[in-house]
Specification:
The chain is α+β, with helices and mostly antiparallel strands. The protein has helices spanning 7-30, 37-50, 117-134, 143-155, 249-255, and strands at 54-55, 67-71, 74-76, 90-99, 102-111, 160-161, 167-169, 176-180, 197-200, 203-205, 211-213, 220-222, 228-230, 233-238, 241-244. The chain is 28% helix and 24% strand. Bound molecules: magnesium ion (2 copies). One magnesium ion binds at residues 105, 168, 199, 201, 232.
Length: 272
């Protein structure tokens, strides 16, 4: 069942999402060749606790760390290890935080040093597909409209849209109803209503959409070994329109990137 949130609850989720946004901003300033995912994971855990929150993923379904860190051909759910990042890598970092009983959960795929142009393109298109999907999260639409839009956009670039993993509702639980697939049919699925809060998170492969899982029981990889990207935002439906609760602002500040991509999903009263 979909849990409709009050305005107060939405503010609490925004607070948790803000902790994650700032954590990813801190990670952005630390990512470079030679640094290990495990080191970054330790920084993230300390940072989250210092901000009055708990790591949202640590211990969830027995996951051993604070961050999901998935380099290159890893799609999601990578376990941070001590293998140093290399120039030209990409790494998807997914982070959760629990504060005041509510979860924030979002993700960004980072470039490490100099990344090949076709990989950069995958990152750009995947991030754009996230906003293409968010625009469809509005009154009058259904779950299938978001998935349809993301799928069409990514497939038009020749990319593979992962089917086995999906976005979700978000609140007092990390994964709530409804499931938010990155594929679908127009006009199908659950109808959207004010007070819904969801995580939309396209997982897009440069090649085949097929995936496999490592024996560690967590790590998801592309079946063909080509790169994969993952971007995730948390969004509330307010007055019929999508409103971002998470932000990439802190990442962009750390990386010196100018962007107004989030502007259309914000309201004046918002401070981020
Ligand atoms: Mg999620
Ligand atoms: Mg996530």
């Amino acid at each position: 069942m979909v849990k409709i949130k009050t305005a107060e609850e939405i503010e609490l989720i925004r607070e948790s999402a803000l902790v994650v946004s700032k954590t990813l901003g801190m990670i952005a300033s630390e990512i470079k060749p030679g640094v290990s995912p495990l080191y970054l994971d330790g920084l993230a855990e300390t940072f989250i606790r210092d901000h009055g929150a708990e790591p949202g993923f640590l211990g969830m379904y027995d996951f051993p760390n604070t961050l999901n860190m998935s380099p290159n051909a890893q799609v999601v759910h990578g376990i941070p290890n001590d293998t140093p990042l290399e120039d030209g890598d990409i790494i998807s970092v997914d982070c959760g935080a629990l504060k005041n009983g509510y979860y924030g959960d979002h993700a960004y795929t980072f470039e490490v040093g100099d990344v090949a142009p076709d990989t950069k393109k995958l990152l750009e298109v995947t991030k754009e597909s996230l906003y293409v999907g968010i625009r469809e999260f509005k009154i009058g639409n259904r779950v299938g409209d978001v998935g349809f839009a993301i799928q069409q956009f990514c497939e038009s670039h020749g990319y593979g849209v992962v089917r086995e993993l999906v976005g979700h509702g978000l609140g007092t639980e990390l994964h709530e109803s409804p499931e938010m697939p990155n594929y679908g049919k127009r006009g199908r699925g659950k109808k959207f209503a004010d007070g819904m809060v969801v995580a939309i998170e396209p997982m897009i492969n440069m090649g085949t959409r097929r995936i496999r899982q490592l024996k560690d029981g967590w790590t998801i990889l592309t079946a063909d070994g080509k790169p994969s990207a993952h971007f995730e935002h948390n969004i509330a439906l307010v007055d019929g329109k999508p409103q971002l609760l998470s932000t990439f602002k802190y990442i962009y500040d750390a990386l010196g990137i100018e962007s107004d991509e989030e502007k259309e999903f914000r309201q004046d009263k918002q401070t981020v």
